[in-house]
Amino acid sequence: MGAPTEGGGYGGRGGRGDRGDRPPPDTSVRGRLRARARKKARKQKKGGFVRRKVCRFCADSSLEIDYKDPKSLRLFVAEVGKMIPRRISGNCAKHQRKLAVAIKRARHIALLPYSGQGL
Fold first, then answer.
1. Domain extents in the chain
2. Could you give the CA distance from residue 83 to residue 74 in angstroms, rounded to a whole number?
3. Most exposed residue of 16, 29, 53, 70, measured as fewest CB within 10 angstroms of its CB?
4. CA distances from 61 to 9, 52, 76 (A)
5. How many Å apart are CA 113 and CA 103, to the nearest integer?
6. What totals of helices (H) and strands (E) does the chain contain, helices first?
């Protein structure tokens, strides 16, 4: 299995993985500048500056996480029924853990659905 077979590539995959069909990388100055410009354009396309999300429970101490309040918990559950992750919701680790427990409790006593069918 270690040596290439007749069709190119490994394991008789019909030439995939051989990269013999790809032209060699352009090592000229113009090619390197073109590659750098493409990389820069890709980086700018991603969006640039993104404002840091703030945990809304830390910012407003009057907000509480309560499993008996499905209206507020629905903000942290996606349409499919999955919990929204911390990096998207902006919650801190402490409040994300409390939120996860509250969502699980609300699901257990049927205040929130397990799947997205009842949302």
1. 56-118
2. 9
3. 29
4. 61, 19, 18
5. 10
6. 5, 0
**Average pLDDT over the chain, rounded to an integer:** 81
Q: What is the pTM of this model?
A: 0.57
Average of pLDDT values for 69-95?
Answer: 93
Backbone angles phi and psi of 57, in degrees to 5: -80, -30
Mean pLDDT of 67-79: 93
CATH class, range 56-118: few secondary structures
Task: For residues 97 and 57, give the distance between their C-alpha atoms in angstroms, rounded to a whole number.
Answer: 12
The separation between CA 105 and the C-alpha centre of its own chain, rounded to angstroms, equals 25
The whole-angstrom separation of Cα 77 and Cα 113 is: 10
Quick one: 96 exposed, middle or buried, by C-beta within 10 A (0-12, 13-18, 19+)?
buried
